Amino acid sequence: MTVLQTALDPTGPDHRAHRAAMLAKLAELEAEHAKALAGGGEKYVRRHRARGKLLARERIELLLDPDTPFLELSPLAAWGSDHPVGASLVTGIGVVEGVECLITANDPTVRGGASNPWSLKKALRANDIALANRLPCISLVESGGADLPSQKEIFIPGGAIFRDLTRLSAAGIPTIAVVFGNSTAGGAYVPGMSDHVIMVKERAKVFLGGPPLVKMATGEESDDESLGGAEMHARVSGLADHLAADEPDALRQARRVVARLNHRKAHPDPGPAQPPAHDPEELLGVVPDDLKTPFDPREVIARIVDGSDFDEFKPLYGTSLVTGWAALHGYPVGILANAQGVLFSAESQKAAQFIQLANQRDIPLLFLHNTTGYMVGKEYEQGGIIKHGAMMINAVSNSRVPHLSVLMGASYGAGHYGMCGRAYDPRFLFAWPSAKSAVMGPQQLAGVLSIVARQSAAAKGQPYDEDADAALRAMVEQQIESESLPLFLSGRLYDDGVIDPRDTRTVLGLCLSAVHSAPYEGARGGFGVFRM
């Protein structure tokens, strides 16, 4: 039998304590998500509604097929910065007329939908996802262009938005723009470079320069409608392919455009799948609040894969890394999950072989992170930990099957790389509220700095200030701890969102479905030199 058994006791004190800590983190997460949902605040939401307009997420809801999910991406973008949480842009994946699409929607209640540096990063990440997974891209546009006080951080890299639109089109991936209001200056190129354009009558305004700028540049007097109104673009310039009577009509027309795309997934959906044999609700109590305490990742695997059915690979070798085969919502997956945190030489070699096997079989890989990194020390250095860790990273870097990553606990040092962190281009990467990621743990990093400072003082023959050392260690620990937390990392788009552990199976299922929209083939060779 390959159905995983469970050793969790949901009524035990440890499970209850872990659950309580996770629920507290989820409450904090919900409060931050609420800030993104609030947009520009009650005043600007009320003013927007008074103009008879829908909010960004209401537009998305009308666009999507009824009763289908929307996987929102990067909802915490800009967290901890000077810009509002969410970065004035909503992005995500949803189903329109049976077609999975990448959807972006400006939030006009936040500074008129103007783009700040984090909006740009969020939009570029969305474009990357659309291109990698061949998802039609629908832009729900209402933006005043760049947030001018931030122009020095937006103007030069911002050109990639328009480059991406043309590359998507050139790759045969449809692009659709629905314009509800202002789409000015650089923002005018979004409809200008999209395959299909719908504009709302008497509301859409698309021009490179509005009347004040035209007056300053040329002396010409003009008005919004004649310069860039929807009717003018539908009748005169030809920029608008469809003229909509109002917002619901524009979204209806967008759905009809998608219905006529003849866009097909590269892989058929696998059909119904058996749910896990163990309750996903119990995932709340799996990860200890103190990440130094190990936990068995099989308890996680048992609550996310189909039927809790898992064929483990090399279960007696390299036991701090669990590897094996399963299905998730019907899609085959190879899973690598950290067990005791540290990666040794055996685990690294096991991972490299497993990744090669997945590539031979064209099976996507799922990385479940809880690692403090590769093992250090004289014995391990002499045993070849560098070349073995490099072997694992080599395999991850050159693997061509889709990768998905979930940070459950620690994800420190080069272990983050070996487990396919953000720099290794996983198709999607999510974090649990319990996750932490940095070059090393706060205490270790502060301790290293203390040792270096102590050695420096000794080399100079100077006395060492113990009080200053204690203050330095405390300051560094606090800084690294705050910069390791998922809200901080998600705010910088180092993941695609912080998710409730109970939603992990659903989120991964949606991602696997999106991944299978594009063809892929594993690497049959093409790995770098494995140092033996």
Automatic annotation (TrEMBL):
InterPro entries: AcCoA_carboxyl_beta, ClpP/crotonase-like_dom_sf, COA_CT_C, COA_CT_N, MCCB/AccD1-like
Annotated CoA carboxyltransferase N-terminal domain residues: 22-273
Domain of life of the source: Bacteria
GO molecular function: ligase activity
Record domain CoA carboxyltransferase C-terminal: where: 275-522
PANTHER family per the UniProt record, alphabetical: ACETYL, PROPIONYL, PYRUVATE, AND GLUTACONYL CARBOXYLASE-RELATED (PTHR22855), METHYLCROTONOYL-COA CARBOXYLASE (PTHR22855:SF46)
Protein known as: Acetyl-CoA carboxylase carboxyltransferase subunit
Organism: Streptomyces capoamus
